[in-house]
Amino acid sequence: MTDHTETGSGEFRAGFVSFVGRPNVGKSTLTNALVGEKIAITSPKPQTTRRAIRGIAHRPDGQLIIVDTPGIHRPRTLLGERLNALVEATLGDVDVIGFCVPANEKLGPGDKFINERLEDFPRAKKVAILTKVDEASKSEIIDQLTRLGTLREWDAVVPISAVTQEQLDVLSDVLLGLMPISPPLYDAEQTTDESEDDRIAELIREAALEGAREELPHSLAATVDDREVRDDGLLELYASIYVERDSQKGIVIGKGGSRLRDVGEKARHEIEALLGRRVYLSLRVKVLKEWQRDSKALGKLGF
Ligand SMILES: Nc1nc2c(ncn2[C@@H]2O[C@H](COP(=O)(O)OP(=O)(O)OP(=O)(O)O)[C@@H](O)[C@H]2O)c(=O)[nH]1
After folding, report:
1. What is the whole-number distance in angstroms between the Cα of residue 29 and the centre of ligand 1?
2. What is the topology classification, in CATH, of domain 196-300?
3. What is the pTM (predicted TM-score) of this model?
4. 154-182 confidence digits (pLDDT tens)
5. Does domain 13-177 have CATH number 2.40.30.10?
6. CA 49 – CA 30 distance, rounded (Å)
7. Ligand 1 pocket by C-beta < 6 Å: which residues?
8. ipTM over 0.95 threshold
């Protein structure tokens, strides 16, 4: 079981926080930096986060349970609608919402749209997080903080960089301070409640996303279909990458299978790091026609 020593102030706090913001503002990177382990996938392509993944940051004086949501956006497909419903359900339930805005881009209509939506979640405390301060000048940061201040009365405003780790300790202090006094909600060893297969599938999808062309990211999904331990102890994993159209299959596989080999190689390294053991990874690319619009297919892929 867990071994939690309480600090001077005495009170242990635990609760749920969700980071929201436009695509690509650094929510997943922040989650990973706070948790200290790779949980949510990160990618330079927007909207790559598709499911609510919990990362748990353990501290001597509390636990921050991070619910990573897909971005809030206007739905265009059935997948989009489901994702928005997921966001609604998640945000209705958290103690703190961290509204992320990058320091190196001006506040735009997208930020304002999301900020207004925060009114729908009166239960949650609201913290503005200025991300990527390593990419902005002092005066840009000050301007941006001032503008953020005009949006609403925040419970706190914190500038951070997940890449240089700047102010991450301040942010976790602030977030924890806003959490209810509570006994630990999870064991100290636990950093996520996602299943291992789901995490492996995310690593495969992340590898396949790398270098993928514009049209592809939203069409990619991955599943782990089977696993077997060989006599020599090697873990065999059988997984599928799904695309929506025949033409996309060729793109993922590449000339003579070269691209798929690279994807497999990259994913295998990440999976081995996650599991702490050697793995044989078999990847197959399958076409699931228009799966984003097909409720049966969405179910099959775990949405
Ligand atoms: N320089 C800098 N880059 C960052 C920082 N945080 C994230 N990034 C980069 O910004 C890009 C997007 O980061 P993500 O964490 O995937 O963004 P996200 O908000 O989770 O994106 P979605 O999943 O699309 O909603 C990646 O290329 C990150 O490496 C930061 O603190 N500094």
Report:
1. 5
2. GMP Synthetase; Chain A, domain 3 (3.30.300)
3. 0.64
4. 999 999 999 999 999 999 999 999 999 99
5. no
6. 13
7. 21, 23-29, 42-44, 46-49, 71, 131-132, 134-135, 161-163
8. yes
